Amino acid sequence: MTFSTRKLLAGLAVVMLSSSPLLASAAGNAYQMGLPEEAPGAELIKAGQFKAGIEQAVSPRQADTDPFFRQLSLCVAYSRTADFASAEAACTEAVQRAGTLQAVPRSAKREMRALALNNRAVMNLMAGDKVAALQDLMLAVKLDNSELTVANLQRLTMSINGIASTQVAQQAAE
Fold this sequence. Notes:
Largest sheet: 2 strands, antiparallel
Distance between the termini: 52 Å
Strand content: 5-15%
Helix content: 55-70%
Low-confidence stretches: 1-15, 18-28, 168-174
Structural class: mainly alpha
Shape: globular
Strand order of the largest sheet: 1-2
Radius of gyration: 16 Å
Mean pLDDT: 81
Number of helices: 9
């Protein structure tokens, strides 16, 4: 088990990243991606230095880092730079790698896969594919009913159904 995997098992610290600079000001309404703090390049990505985060994640110095965490970093960073072909490859690789980790409890693998699916869903939304995003978010919620994935699924469902969040708040108040 790598250091990063042990760190994840101790508690998943997720860095929230809004899916779009336009949505960043309305953080309560933004789709969110998650990235464990220990993932290579996470601090740079969190600071908006996406290209530097990508360079750090692919650096030969990261060779002993678990590939899942590298791919998760690349998924987020490529998404934020609108390099959707690279983001798709990295996100899909992270989803696949989450299930192959050795010496990791099944529950942690489910959480990790759900996080990777969530990130791929947000990337698909940024690329304009709501159908793929909905499929990924539904599976992510089924694997791990986390606040992050549930909130993203609710936002997408409301968007698809044409319900604005202000309408939902007004309906709840009535």
